Amino acid sequence: MMRRKRKTSEILLGAVTWFAAAVTIGLLLLLVGFILVRGVPHLKPSLFALHYNSDNVSLVPALISTIVIAIVSLVIAVPLGVFAAIYLAEYARRGNRAVAVIRMTTETLSGIPSIVYGLFGGLFFVVFLGWGYSVLAGAATLSIMILPLVMRSAEEALKSVPDTYREGSFGLGAGKLRTVLRIVLPSAVPGILAGVILAVGRIVGETAALIYTAGTVAQIPGSPMQSARTLSVHMYSLSSEGLHTDEGYATAVVLLVVVVLINALSARIAKRLGRRS
Amino acid sequence: MNRLNANKLRERLMGAVFFISALVSILAVGLICLFLFANGLPAMGKIGVFSFLLGREWSPTDTPARFGILPMIVGSLYVTAGAILIGVPIGVLTAVFLARVCPRRLYKLLKPGVDLLAGIPSVVYGFFGIAVIVPLSGSSILSACILLGIMILPTVIGLAESALRAVPEQYYEGALALGAGHYRSVFTVVLPAAKSGILAAVVLGIGRAIGETMAVVMVAGNQARMPVSLLKGVRTMTANIVIEMGYAGDLHREALIATGVVLLMFILIINLSLSALNRRGK
Amino acid sequence: MNCFEIKGLNLYYDKFHALKNIDLELESGKITAFIGPSGCGKSTLLKTLNRMNDLVEGCRITGDVRLFGEDIYDDTDVNLLRRRVGMVFQKPNPFPMSIFDNVAYGPRTHGIKSRFELGEIVESSLRAAAIWDEVKDRLKKPALSLSGGQQQRLCIARALAVSPEVLLMDEPTSALDPISTGKIEELLLTLREKYSIIIVTHNMQQATRISDSTAFFLLGEVIEYDSTETVFAMPRDQRTEDYITGRFG
Description:
Chain A is mainly alpha-helical. Chain A is 76% helix and 0% strand. Chain A has helices at 2-39, 60-91, 97-111, 114-128, 135-159, 163-171, 176-205, 208-211, 231-241, 245-276. In chain A, helix 2 (60-91) runs antiparallel to helix 7 (176-205), helix 3 (97-111) packs across helix 5 and helix 4 packs across helix 5. In chain B, 79% of the residues lie in helices and 1% in strands. In chain B, a hairpin with a 6-residue loop joins strand 1 (58-59) and strand 2. Chain B is globular, with a radius of gyration of 24 Å. In chain C, 37% of the residues lie in helices and 27% in strands. In chain C, helix 6 (148-160) packs parallel to helix 7 (178-191). Chain C is globular. The chains are: A mainly alpha, B mainly alpha, C alpha/beta. Chain B binds chain C through residues 3-4, 7, and chain C through 77, 79-80, 111.
């Protein structure tokens, strides 16, 4: 009797676990399959025209804007994030008060929803600094959003560099700065890169933080002070206009491909890191 | 001697640059709070804190205009609660599967799959919701709950899986040695041992759900009224901001920013409880 | 002549009193060995000689350490001190770069830029460390591809490349096989002519084979310091005798 009861609970728990996993797998397949089925048939050449008009609904300008905004955001956030991580990992002393505050605010930043970033970007960069809806305002907003991500991955990468490298360099009479820039930082590059790629993923997927900062103009921006829309914003505009849903799905396919590429790249770097250590 | 001084100067200078860069995150949080509060709080004053937070009517273009955001607060809470109800059980059980059950070869396929779920943009989830969920349950609370439940899956799975993997192997072996079966050992010993990590995963999931904007806007119906039924539409705080910000002026605009302030408050509370959890976990 | 003169040196890690009232005069142009059981303070003392202890938080030092008469804890430039007092670590720690760049790192740090000059320094350092013939055809290869013994000789070459006056060695052969150990010991005997060498070792045979004088440490104190012959043949202190005859440690 006991024995049977135990066996039943074992089977039941097993069934529940497998069922949940099956639901997750099913959802994943449904989601990807659905996008492919609805989107691939509408991947027409006209979708890839260099200029957008309401006939071809081209996604190329949005693709280019996505790349431009990603680059500008990274140019701002990566040096800041890496420098901040260098301070935290290499310079800050044990029990430093400022460090506690920096960690707390960084954690806070990583929890703030993108729409709040959008609101702030709109108030600060667009209105207060007078940049208007522009690539620069959008990228500046996104750079604050990805800063905690870059900081954390860079700090972890720096901390995983063995101390024997630092000792070796100091032992030869090199100063702190030279040791950090010539020995520690180069060894941490793969870890930092993995973080940067994750950040690119967030930028590519972002919408709410961009609508009221970079705006929604569908052309290739001529200067950083002009408005532009990324692929995600492009998709949202298509859906809210309701006229070009099919092209929206086609755009989703392109976005999906981009995400898969980004994930594959970061997995590859992570694997190489694992092998080295 | 000159070179020595130049070196010292460079050391000092770059040390300062690193420190100042580290201060940027403090500056950013400060500026975000400053600009949101400065632009949102006066509106709360003008409308009245109570009629803003507890007012049941949002009709910014009527005369007299009414700015009560209780429907949106309640809407956000409903939708978030529903997402947790759907996403957490599936997510935690999937994490158990990944950490303790999954055959290696399946894992190699499944793990990138979960990462893919995490990387898919909200707008794409929104398109999926419009075409697959809305035809079944309408533009409604339920649809938003289901879609958000799916969207928080990768967050919950990822954190819960690493919490489960951090449980020492001896716990599991100890349970096996007492004659418990594989699943029983996992559920009665390993899962409880990973409790604080799983709780952190849930709290992070709550943060994700309450902050999500675009996907919710696309499936929730967005009627600014007190929720009446699971199958009727609802508007969240995030939706309120993104829908009306484009055309709002004056007090209306300030009231939207004040909505952002309330949302930020919710997030700060969630963050505080998360760091309290992490401290206790250590 | 003495390379180091240490008087009344005390060192604390937070509350822990790691070195107690050390008085030592180390002769230049000789090999001095520090021996003693683990945790006796011999490596700690070695690291105060080029101020590597500065990197340890909570480390406090009182007393007097002089390098050729100059107080190194006064306002000496630490980087200059470390250039004059080179160090080789317990585990070989080549940087993750090419063999050439490893040896050239020190000279570059101290301002040498000319490709030709660097090439000369790299070759002469690698020759002095008795590894030139093994690596001359693959200077561009990563240093981490060398064997453990080769890596340690590379690290010695790297230390020699900044032309130090003193070489500190912290158990340089403890991570190596007997053959590599033999090669490094031979190398040290040839280097003695040009450099003052201070070596921490666990291996008492090593101390007798290569060193001129030996200091025996116990619990943060110098128990006995004399010529190696005297210390090992007629120790004055009972504790020294117990240690070298293997009764503890």
